[in-house]
C-alpha cells in the first residue's frame, strides 16, 4: 500500500462560458482566481484555477471553458459531485446566498452524519458544501466572511457501476474504507487531513456518462514532490496500470492513468505552486502562458474574451 498520497490536489472540469464560470466561482462561491492561463493542448481555450489565497493543494477547482460546449450527460464512470468544506452551522446562510444569486437545484442533504447543501454549478455540474470542522484558513478577499467562507475541498464523489475495482485501487493508493451508507462507500487517507475523502456511489443500472460542459475531466491526487510522484508511478506501473510519463504543468508535475471504473486519475505534485510566475498578492490577474505558447500571446490576447477581475 502506498503512503505518498495525502488526499485531493485539484479537480478539473469542462465549461461552456469563461465569463460565467469566473463569476460563479469568484462572485458567488467566493473563491480566489489564482491563475488565468490556457489549455496546454488547446491554447485558444482558457484554463482557470479557483482556490484559497495561494491555491493550496486540496483547494483548487479548475476549468476548461470551451465556448458554446454542449452539456455533458451524467452517468457512471465520472466524478458526479465535488464537495467543498464550509464552517459548521453555515449551510443555512449559504442556502440563502445561493438562492439570492439565482443558483438552481439547491438541496439540503445529510451523508455520514454531515450536513450538506448540494446545488448546480454554471453548467449543471453538481457541487456540494459540507459543514466541517476544517482548520484551514479561507480566502476572504470578496464579500464572504471567515465565518462562512469555503476552506477548500471536503471530498469528491464518483459514480460507478461497480465500486469494487476502484475501491481496491484507492486502497492500494493509501485510502481506507470508513463506512457504507445508502449505496455510498466512503474512503479516506488516514491522517491525510482536509480534502482526504472520496465517496464511491454504486449505480449498477445507470448508463455511462458522456463528457461535455459540466463534466469533470479528471481528479488529481496530491503528493509532496517529484520524488514521491516517481515512487507512485513505478508502483502503479508494477501493478499493471498504463501511466503517462511525468508532464510539466508549470504549477505542478503530473502523471495520468485511467482505472477500470472510467474516471481519469492524475497524481500531481505540491511543488512548485502558483506563485512561481506571479506574486501572491496578484495571483490570477494576468494571462500566463506555457512557454511553448508564449509566441501566440498577441493572437490569444485578441481571441480570448475578457472574463472580469481575479477576485
From TrEMBL:
Keyword Lyase in annotation = yes
Q: EC number(s) for this protein?
A: 4.4.1.5
Keyword terms: Lyase
The coiled-coil regions, if any, are: none
Q: Which CDD domains match?
A: PcpA_C_like (cd08347)
Query: InterPro entries, per this entry?
Result: Extradiol_RC_dioxygenase, Glyas_Bleomycin-R_OHBP_Dase, Glyas_Fos-R_dOase_dom, VOC_core
The record, for SUPFAM superfamilies, names: Glyoxalase/Bleomycin resistance protein/Dihydroxybiphenyl dioxygenase
Q: Name one GO molecular function term.
A: lactoylglutathione lyase activity
Does the UniProt entry include the keyword Lyase? yes
Q: Where is the signal peptide?
A: none
Query: Pfam families, alphabetically?
Result: Glyoxalase
Name the record gives this protein: Lactoylglutathione lyase
Amino acid at each position: 500500500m502506498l503512503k505518498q498520497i495525502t488526499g485531493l490536489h485539484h479537480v478539473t472540469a469542462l465549461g461552456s462560458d469563461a465569463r460565467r464560470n469566473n463569476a460563479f466561482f469568484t462572485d458567488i462561491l467566493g473563491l480566489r482566481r489564482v491563475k488565468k492561463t490556457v489549455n496546454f493542448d488547446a491554447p485558444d481555450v482558457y484554463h482557470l484555477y479557483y482556490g484559497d489565497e495561494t491555491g493550496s493543494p486540496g483547494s483548487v477547482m479548475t476549468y476548461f471553458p470551451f465556448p458554446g460546449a454542449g452539456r455533458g450527460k451524467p452517468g457512471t464512470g465520472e466524478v458526479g459531485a465535488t464537495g467543498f468544506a464550509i464552517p459548521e452551522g453555515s449551510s443555512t446562510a449559504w442556502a440563502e446566498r445561493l438562492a439570492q444569486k439565482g443558483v438552481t437545484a439547491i438541496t439540503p442533504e445529510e451523508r455520514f452524519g454531515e450536513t450538506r447543501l448540494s446545488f448546480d454549478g454554471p453548467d449543471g455540474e453538481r457541487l456540494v458544501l459540507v459543514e466541517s470542522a476544517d482548520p484551514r484558513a479561507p480566502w476572504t478577499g470578496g464579500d464572504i466572511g471567515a465565518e462562512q467562507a469555503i476552506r477548500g475541498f471536503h471530498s469528491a464523489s464518483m459514480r460507478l457501476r461497480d465500486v469494487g475495482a476502484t475501491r481496491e485501487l484507492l486502497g492500494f493508493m493509501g485510502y481506507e474504507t470508513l463506512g457504507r451508507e445508502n449505496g455510498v462507500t466512503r474512503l479516506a487517507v488516514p491522517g491525510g487531513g482536509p480534502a482526504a475523502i472520496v465517496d464511491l456511489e454504486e449505480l449498477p443500472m445507470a448508463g455511462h456518462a458522456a463528457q461535455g460542459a459540466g463534466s469533470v475531466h479528471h481528479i488529481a491526487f496530491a503528493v509532496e514532490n517529484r520524488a514521491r510522484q516517481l515512487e507512485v508511478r513505478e508502483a502503479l506501473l508494477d501493478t499493471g496500470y498504463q501511466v503517462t510519463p511525468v508532464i510539466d504543468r508549470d504549477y505542478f508535475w503530473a502523471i495520468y492513468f485511467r482505472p477500470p471504473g472510467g474516471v481519469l486519475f492524475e497524481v500531481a505534485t505540491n511543488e512548485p505552486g502558483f506563485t512561481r510566475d506571479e506574486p501572491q498578492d496578484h495571483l490570477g490577474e494576468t494571462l500566463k502562458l506555457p512557454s511553448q505558447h508564449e509566441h501566440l500571446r498577441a493572437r490569444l490576447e485578441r481571441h480570448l474574451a475578457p472574463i472580469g477581475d481575479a477576485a
